[in-house]
Write a structure and sequence with these properties.
About 7% of the residues have low confidence. The chain is built from 4 helices and 4 strands. The protein is elongated, with a radius of gyration of 20 Å. It has a 4-stranded antiparallel sheet with strand order 1-2-4-3, with no helix packed on it.
């Protein structure tokens, strides 16, 4: 209630122009019962956006919509992510991660160093991840 009161006071004092970058947060406010007029966003949202739990306007990794339905999946296919190792990892290290609904890691046995179910959100999904060495500039 206090959050909504503060948001309303800020909007009344400074005005509000809807910007698409705020769509995810506004969508969640609408799901919580706020009115679209408050955000000048009535033209940006329809009932199907809200019925979809804001998936259409929220980034894939956004935890807000997964908290509403912890078994909600971010898509039908496994989500593959490859990132450069950082921090104390050597320059030739990358992290390969796959998010899937299957407890069995994909690919050849032993490729992934870690496989487990998500604990707090996305609990219907599993993370399979590994650090791998690569040769910069080379292709397999």
């Amino acid at each position: 209630v206090a959050r909504c009161l503060i948001a309303t006071l800020v909007i009344l004092a400074y005005g509000w122009d809807f910007e698409p970058r705020y769509a995810c947060g506004i969508c969640h406010e609408l799901l919580d019962g706020e009115q679209c007029e408050q955000f000048g966003a009535c033209s940006a949202f329809n009932i199907s956006t809200l019925k979809g739990g804001c998936q259409a306007v929220c980034p894939r990794g956004n935890h807000l919509w997964s908290e509403r339905n912890p078994k909600l999946w971010v898509g039908g296919d496994p989500d593959v992510r490859v990132t450069k190792g950082f921090g104390t990892k050597p320059y030739d290290q990358i992290r390969v991660s796959i998010i899937s609904q299957d407890a069995t890691p994909p690919g050849e046995a032993g490729f992934f160093d870690y496989s487990a179910r998500f604990r707090y959100s996305w609990t219907g999904n599993f993370l399979h991840t590994a650090m791998k060495s690569v040769t910069p500039g080379a292709t397999a």
